[in-house]
């Protein structure tokens, strides 16, 4: 990437997003969106600086179009957007489908589906040569849940990741000839705050199901994302990549 090229990671204050920001590579300019965790966002900036990454936190809620558009305007001031990592996501909370509420569905759809679509739209508007851009790359953070359907936990969440996979396939083909690559990474069970509501018994049962016998680390997902965002993946588009310890 050139000096003024920018990578944007949505949801970069914690978990997988923060690892992507921190490991983005010496000299890389990275902007990241966060919703409310200001202290964590500042900690992420410091951790990134220690790795030679210049990270800029931007408070922007991807479930709110006006907020997201303000976030993209802030990114434009930093340089040219060349990579978008659509990472911000929520589970909507654990619930069997028979108990799911309209409010849960609304939240998970707005953040995981509408948010990812609108961020992808803004990225394509900036990257496409049809609009004066110079190409780029989008990596969607989906989930292994899109394959399992996550029964007894969060079918609502799993379905949003299915939507993200479908968007990846369609958008990759829509913009391939415009020099924009679109891929998805499907993490398995990764050690982040997203699992904070699980009991020790649930953790143990979950870990037993993983062929490699352990949860993944955010850095293990970040490395795949950063490879997909690199020139090494120049002929890779429309792919759905599992990072899941064999799950
Ligand atoms: P996490 O630790 O809970 O972090 C979520 C991040 O997303 C935070 O930075 C949060 O910002 C941000 N965020 C949430 N809602 C947002 C919104 N409306 N606007 C802007 N930012 C928002 O989650 P994680 O485990 O790293 O998950 C990251 C992605 O990986 C998600 O898409 C998740 O579905 C996917 N994933 C995770 C796992 C796993 O096992 N961890 C497995 C498969 C897929 P604040 O800090 O401000 O709240």
Q: Overview of this structure, please?
A:
This protein has a single domain (5-238), classed as NAD(P)-binding Rossmann-like Domain (Rossmann fold, 3-Layer(aba) Sandwich), CATH 3.40.50. It contains 8 helices and 7 strands, in the order βαβαβαβαβααβααβ. It has helices at residues 15-22, 38-50, 65-78, 102-127, 145-148, 155-175, 200-208, 218-228; strands at 5-10, 29-34, 54-59, 80-86, 136-141, 180-187, 240-243. Strands 3-2-1-4-5-6-7 form a 7-stranded parallel beta sheet, sandwiched between helices. Strand 2 (29-34), helix 2 (38-50) and strand 3 form a beta-alpha-beta unit. The mean pLDDT is 96. The structure holds NADP nicotinamide-adenine-dinucleotide phosphate.
| Low-pLDDT stretches | none
Number of helices: 8
Our measurement of the CA-to-CA distance between the termini, rounded to an integer number of angstroms, reads 34 Å
- The proportion of residues in beta strands is 15-25%
H/E topology pattern: EHEHEHEHEHHEHHE
For the largest beta-sheet, the strand count, sense and barrel status come to: 7 strands, parallel
Strand order of the largest sheet: 3-2-1-4-5-6-7
Oligomer type: single chain
Fold-level CATH name: Rossmann fold
In the CATH hierarchy, what is the class? Alpha Beta
Tally of DSSP β-strands: 7
Q: What would CATH call the architecture?
A: 3-Layer(aba) Sandwich
Question: In total, how many domains does the architecture comprise?
Answer: 1
Cofactors, ions, other ligands: NADP nicotinamide-adenine-dinucleotide phosphate
Structural class: alpha/beta
